[in-house]
Task: structure prediction
Amino acid sequence: MIINDRAYGKIEITDPLIIDLLNTAPMQRLKGINQSSASAFLEPQRNVTRFEHSVGVWYLLKRYGAGKEEQVAGLLHDTPHTVFSHVIDVVFPNVNHNYHEKFADKIILSSDIPQILGKYGLKVENILDKENFPLLEADLPDLSADRIDYFLRDTRWDQLFPDSMVVQFLDGIFVREAKFYFKDKSLASLYAILFINAGRLQWLDPNSHGSYILLAEAVKRALKLKYLTENDLFKTDKEVIGILIKSKDAEIKKYLDRLNPKTKFIYVDAAMAEFTGPNKPRVVDPLVDVDGKLIRISVLIPRLKELFDHFKKTYQIISVSQVKV
Result:
């Protein structure tokens, strides 16, 4: 199987286990889940899917020498993701923005994935235990395969930095004792700075914040009126938008009508805002090898800590309003 990946180029998949898993219903559903969620209605070029992200996470784990179980866990890690990605974390607020993760067992165990894993000598219970896989998931501010992929991938649709830099980052990242690190201090610093800029320009930008709230309000109302059920949250974006449209509810229609490329949001003072709410300003503070010791880049370049702290403080709460364009 050949995949022409927007971040990593040509990926050849020869492992029959991975190919079988890619063809399962939970994985195929991810082709219909947009990683940028509601903001893609305002900016259709934001067209990264959870499927391609999952393949990317698998690729990184394989590239950096993770074991077979961790590679499989990486491929499957987003199968429980709800429709509209993290919009559902606005519908059902939680500090970690991970509402979907509690459904991992249900989604995977009710599919043919356990049988496929068994066929290749793997145990599904091991795959479901993320504590076993430090390269796949790691607490901020560490790097992880998941975090590396969505950063390098989400920055491709608008070429926030050139493709050649993706290659440079991949070649400059190494693994020791189940931790990602850099050998080059300057490259680690650049990575951290660009990661913050991706947050400011993409994940925390006004269009993302405003569109997420619009779509979340539509979903909340549809759930309240029972046009949607919790089970519907595990369909595709297109299917659930269809249900919302068919509801013919005037308030739901009002929210959906604003989710189009003519809508634009800007930052405003809280007193003037249409929508104000919490967000998740993410900062990575990569480890760097210095004479055999792994030291965070913010220790090596203390001014970066000031940048990190300012970013987190500035974007913890975001206030936006729609403007006419």
